[in-house]
Specification:
globular; Cys_Synth/Cystath_Beta-Synth; 18 helices; threonine synthase activity; Thr_synthase-like; 458 residues; lyase
């Protein structure tokens, strides 16, 4: 199936070819972001229901093809992103694909969380099981492949950690150079170590993430560097594919709700795009409600929805220990609002203690995640309490990063010095019951046995 793609402005609707993209990926008419669309079968052409005019693929054939590719030895088939390349035909030549066998990440069931919250089924789509440990790999393989095909030598991003790790790894794999701008002192060291190890030119700027974005916007205007932040529409194309994986894992019976963390908000818009495209193509018959959870200290979308229904967004000075979502001026907020409206989802905020407790509860399921991922479980509790999620419904939580991305956070939680007394107070019993600090003993068998006896006491 040969399908051409084009780029449509999400603000004014202006349509351009790839070659007409500006360095910052914004529309010169209205400054909004672009998204990739396929004229043969995209949502914008859905009004034309004539099968003869719309080259719709066969849903059953696609499902069979994608399943068959899982047993293939070709690199592009072993990728959980490029395995679905029929729905992201963004390259002229598939030989330009840059892959680290990303995707195909597990969908775990969380029975303890389901019982505790009182919901029928709770799942976790763990994007932290990607090659560099976060969901960023899904979009990086597609966007960097486009940069590779277009002949760029340098790629660049501003990052709170995960983007830089993914970009540096894929650039190294392609034999390209990478530039990373990070806010000084506001990044988990585990993430920073990755970009260093993969050979990136890494610059710590004395500013926050949004300040790094402003500097980078000028850099790409003045140098032949391909921008790989989430404003890049080809990032979104890769990040939509977990929607296909979720559907496939559940035998094409979609969950009632999908809950995602809210940082730069590209996940909401990307996954929404994926689910809407599946429905349009007849792969599924509906879409889940997609909801966004933000940290109280980095909640511009939550405030926007409360104050004006998402019509305007006022940036905030972001402050949260969940560093991956410490973003006060999210680039993809308009796209996210559109998906929230299209799917009937909600936006909620959670505090630092709620995030830390939820992270420990996910860890107790044996899978773990980085702090930003845990806002999904913390937010689900609130959505259930508010009646937005019913006990009979199924929920998928998107976990965006591996637990080892920020091991210091985990250690401090279990030692008891992560949260202040004021933060702990409302949730003290729950938090104390989940802490598992080390027990210091002499090298004595009897002491170990006594500790074992104490641990099993009710």
């Amino acid at each position: 199936m040969q399908v051409e793609h084009q780029l449509r402005c999400t603000g004014c609707g202006r349509v351009i070819a790839q070659e007409a993209l500006k360095e910052d990926f914004r529309c010169p008419e209205c400054s909004h972001l672009y998204e990739v669309e396929y004229p043969a079968w995209s949502a914008s052409s859905a009004a034309d229901t004539s099968a003869s005019k719309r080259n719709l693929p066969n849903p059953s054939a696609l499902r069979w093809l994608w399943k068959e590719r899982r047993t293939s030895l070709e690199l592009k088939d072993q990728s959980g992103i490029w395995r679905f390349r029929d729905l992201l035909p963004i390259l002229k030549d598939e030989a330009n694909i840059v892959t680290l066998r990303e995707g195909n990440t597990p969908l775990y069931e969380l029975p303890r969380a389901a019982r505790s919250i009182g919901v029928e089924r709770v799942y976790a789509k763990h994007q932290g099981m990607n090659p560099t440990g976060s969901f960023k790999d899904a979009g990086m393989t597609t966007a960097l492949s486009v940069a590779h095909e277009r002949g760029f030598s340098w790629v660049a991003c501003a990052s709170t950690g995960n983007t830089s790790a993914a970009m540096a790894a894929y650039a190294a794999r392609a034999g390209m150079r990478s530039l990373v701008l990070i806010p000084e002192g506001k990044i988990a060291w585990g993430k920073l170590s990755q970009s260093l190890d993969y050979g990136a030119l890494t610059c710590q700027l004395r500013t926050d993430f949004d300040g790094c974005v402003r500097v980078l916007a000028e850099v790409v205007r003045r140098a032949p560097v391909f921008l790989l932040n989430s404003v890049n529409p080809y990032r979104v194309e890769g990040q939509k594919t977990p929607a296909f994986e979720i559907a496939e894992s559940l035998d094409w019976q979609l969950p009632d709700h999908l809950i995602v963390p809210g940082g730069n908000l590209a996940n909401c818009s990307a996954l929404g795009k994926g689910f809407l495209e599946m429905k349009l193509l007849g792969l599924t018959d509906r879409v889940p409600r997609i909801s966004v959870i933000q940290a109280e200290g980095a909640n511009p979308l939550y405030r926007s929805m409360q104050e004006n229904g998402g019509k305007e967004l006022t940036p905030v000075e972001a402050d949260t220990r969940a560093s991956a979502i410490r973003i006060g001026n999210p680039a993809s907020w308009r796209k996210a609002v559109r998906i929230l409206e299209a799917t009937g989802g909600w936006v909620e905020q959670v505090n630092e203690a709620e995030i830390a407790l939820a992270k420990a509860e996910i860890g107790a399921e044996g899978i773990g995640c980085e702090p930003a991922s845990a806002v999904t479980l913390a937010g689900l509790k609130k959505l259930v309490a508010q009646g937005h999620v019913q006990p009979s419904e199924s929920v998928v939580l998107l976990l965006t990063g591996h637990t080892l991305k920020d091991s210091d956070y985990t250690i401090r939680y279990h030692r008891g010095d992560l949260l202040t007394e004021e933060e702990i107070a409302p949730l003290r019993p729950e938090i104390e019951s989940t802490r598992r600090n080390t027990v210091e003993l002499d090298a004595d068998v009897d002491q170990v046995l006594r500790a074992l006896e104490k641990a099993v006491q009710p």
